[in-house]
Structure formats: C-alpha cells, structure tokens
C-alpha cells in the first residue's frame, strides 16, 4: 500500500512538473506507429484532440492528460512539427505536420473543404510555366439568395469600378495564401490534381478553372495571362462541360460572352466558340473591371482593353 502511494505521488509529480507521464512514454511506439501509417500528414489542433480521444483507452493514458500536454509530448518526442500561418488581418493559425507537407497542402488547411483555384489551378493544369508564390484557395461561402435583377446601367456601373481583391491572406515560409470566399457551388467541378511534389490536391477541374479565371482575371495575373491559359488549353477544353458548368454556376452576369471572346482570340475552331454565341447576347459586357482605354467588339458585345 505504501509503495502504491509512492507511485501515485510520483506520477502526479511527473504530470505537474512538465515531465512526460510514464504511460505516455510507454505508449510512444504505438502513437508513432499510428501517425506513420496514417494517410494524413497535416493536422489541425482539433485533429490531434480527436486522435487522443479515440486512442486514450487503448493506449492506457490517464483521463487527466490534456490536449496541450499530448501535443507537447508529440512535438518534443516525435517528428510532429508545429507551424504558424500568419495574417495581418486575421491573426495566426496553428497547424501540425508529420513528415513532408507541401505549401499547397498547407494552404488547403486554412479552411475545411477548401480547394485550389484560379492562378494556382492554372499552374497545376500545366497552362502556364510560371510558378506563382501566391497560392489561391477557394473557401466557399454559405448559400445565399441569388439576385435576378440585371440592367445595362447596373453592369456599366459595376465594371467601371476597380475590382475588389481579397485581403484574407496568410503567410507561410515565403508563400502567400490568398483565400477567396467564392459563391457556394457545392464544390462544383472540383477534383484532384497532382502537385509538384506528387502530392494529391483538391483543385478546380480544367473547365471550371477556365471559367473562374475569365470571371476573375485579377486572380490569374490579368487578361493576357487568361488568354495564354485559353491558348494552352485549346486541345483539352470541352465546350459542352463549360456550358453545363456555366449553367449550374448560374451567374447573374453574362460571362459566356467573355469565355467565347477568349476562345476566338485563342484560335479555337469557329464551331466551338459559336456555341457560346448561341447562348444569347442581351447586354454589352466587359472583359474586366476598370478598363482605362477600351475597344468594343460588336460580335461579342464586349469591351476589352485597347489593342488586346
């Protein structure tokens, strides 16, 4: 009885002097084995809590062992690494890495259910040779009622203004993660792509990417970079998928005019881009916001930068 009391006191003393409890040390091989064999290599703090909750009994860990102590043990005694994503406007985020994790995977961890889009998807699809240091992440908004009111005056007023750009940006090891709060689409036309380190990444599929950059060229390097992406995608892009995706996206603005214009400029066959013309041309529209000097293309009822 006396010896047992000593053991309890020693265990209590260990837990209250920042020493690792003996049970945790004994369970270390099983803990390491779990992380080594997991398909996940990046964890939120809540993910680590879930690991502890699911395995506490099997690993015979004390109920008094907190998430904080468990994470301290993992960081100090295993190869789990803690990283910080910092933002001027949104504070910092803590994430944990086990093994090699690419910046693209870290970027996707900013929001649950996020996916790579715009210039980043352009790069992953091989539509540009540029390697941008900004990674674009689409974190969809919750569903909102859609507006059905569209007038020529409203279009002119909206596109005369400078386009709004996200200030929802995190920094990590020389990379910037630009978070775009996109409209709710239920992750329409989102799939997986292979990244530069052969990692699997959630990203927009080819046709959705081409639509996204036509809608927001500022997130793709501007209209000339968008045109270059359309040229490179010429033999791969399905007009049927573009039209079906546009219909599901249900944009208020007539972006089909922009997409058809890019296709014609990029040298697509006439019978392909004519399918966009057949959708209808009810309004004059704009290739981008705040065009200083523009030329009007009557065929597409579209204002584009002069000399484009």
How big is the Rg? 26 Å
Rough shape? elongated
Flag low-confidence runs: 1-17
Proportion in β-strands: 15-25%
Judged by helices, strands and strand pairing, the structural class is alpha+beta
| Count of DSSP H/I helices | 12
As a percent range, the share of helical residues equals 25-40%
Q: Could you state the order of secondary-structure elements as H and E?
A: HHEHHEEHEHEHEEEEHHHHHEEE
Largest sheet: 4 strands, mixed
**Strand arrangement, largest sheet?**
4-5-7-6
Distance between the termini: 88 Å
Number of E strands: 12
Mean pLDDT: 93
Would you summarize the structure shown here?
By secondary structure, the protein is α+β, with helices and mostly antiparallel strands. The protein has helices at residues 2-15, 22-36, 45-55, 67-77, 103-108, 118-124, 152-160, 206-215, 223-232, 239-249, 255-265, 270-277, and strands at 42-43, 80-87, 91-98, 115-116, 134-138, 169-172, 175-180, 190-194, 200-204, 285-286, 294-297, 302-305.
Which features characterize this protein?
308 residues, four-stranded mixed sheet, three-stranded antiparallel sheet, 12 strands, 40% helix, 12 helices
Description:
The protein is of the alpha+beta class and 308 residues long. The protein is 40% helix and 18% strand. The chain has helices spanning 2-15, 22-36, 45-55, 67-77, 103-108, 118-124, 152-160, 206-215, 223-232, 239-249, 255-265, 270-277, and strands spanning 42-43, 80-87, 91-98, 115-116, 134-138, 169-172, 175-180, 190-194, 200-204, 285-286, 294-297, 302-305. Residues 1-17 have low confidence and may be disordered.
